[in-house]
UniProtKB/TrEMBL annotation:
Residues 28-155 form the AB hydrolase-1 domain. GO terms for molecular function: hydrolase activity. It comes from Streptomyces yunnanensis. The keyword Glycoprotein does not apply. This is Alpha/beta hydrolase. PANTHER family: HYDROLASE, PUTATIVE (AFU_ORTHOLOGUE AFUA_2G14860)-RELATED, MONOACYLGLYCEROL LIPASE. InterPro entries: AB_hydrolase_1, AB_hydrolase_fold, AB_hydrolase_sf. Pfam families: Abhydrolase_1.
Length: 270
């Protein structure tokens, strides 16, 4: 475990170095970006990260600001703040090989936003149950966060959750409640800068988008693919939003194949 200063913030970072290497070229690096509220880097630690490291990929995981073990400032939760954090983190860690971004839910929005901001810096993006930050996304986030903040303030909620799900799950939900009630997240995220279709279309790195067939996000697959010439969309049967957990093996297969297909072959001395 390491705490790294990135963008003036203490960010919790975990790394899993590649366990095997091929040739003399530096291995690719994958940055795993988790989702909002009840998620953290732990989700990846027990799903995709060990497999990617075993496959010869350097793995970087970090907790978003305000979540997990990272610092929780009272303000500064627009998407642009998260993009600045990721940019500063990459500058500090300075990975040598090609960098691939994998984002789950809100983490995918961050990954795509980084690719939109830094064309040519990212070898590929993989988005799990995620979408770009558009006007429609902003309106949906406003509704979801306001509704979540109201529900997490309900009297007796946590006692019910302990009885139904146990203390471990309830601890994560309490942390989400603190994020919503003690920071400006609810108003900051919907106020983020958004991308129009031209900005989405300008992202030129390969993009893999995975959706659960029972999720409302699956409906955007055709739209997304129509805008991006180097995009592949996959709709996973019998899954809702938590594809990462519900179909971990398939998700790992698809993303690992995507990373391998879009990691440039480098010769010694090049």
């Amino acid at each position: 475990m390491a705490m790294i200063d990135a963008n003036g913030l203490a960010v919790h970072v975990e790394r899993m170095p590649a366990r095997t290497t091929t040739g003399t070229a530096p291995p690719p690096t994958v940055v795993l970006i988790h989702g909002m509220l009840i998620d953290s880097l732990i989700s990846y630690y027990f799903t995709l990260a060990p497999r990617f490291a075993a496959a010869g990929i350097d793995v970087i995981m970090y907790d978003l600001r305000g979540q997990g073990l990272s610092e929780r400032p009272s303000a500064g939760y627009r998407l642009e703040d998260h993009l600045d954090d990721l940019e500063a983190l990459l500058d500090r860690l300075d990975p040598v090989g090609p960098v691939h971004l994998v984002g789950n839910s809100y983490g995918g929005t961050i990954a795509f936003g980084h690719a939109a901001r830094h064309r040519g810096r990212v070898a590929s993006v993989s988005m799990i149950e995620s979408e770009p930050a558009t006007g429609a996304w902003s309106r949906k986030m406003a509704d979801n966060l306001a509704r979540g903040a109201e529900e997490l303030a309900r009297d007796g909620l946590f006692e019910e959750l302990v009885e139904k799900h146990g203390k471990h799950v309830t601890k994560r939900i309490r942390s989400a409640a603190r994020l919503l009630h003690s920071t400006t997240t609810v108003r900051d995220v919907p106020a983020s800068q958004v991308l129009d279709e031209d900005a989405v279309r300008a992202v030129d790195c390969p993009v893999l988008a995975l959706y659960g067939a029972e999720s409302e996000l699956a409906a955007q697959a055709d739209w997304f693919r129509s805008l991006l010439p180097r995009c592949r969309t996959v709709v996973v049967p019998d899954q809702e939003h938590w594809v990462l957990v519900g179909a971990t093996e398939l998700t790992g297969d698809l993303i690992l194949g995507w990373i391998r297909a879009h990691t440039p072959c480098r010769q010694p001395g090049t």
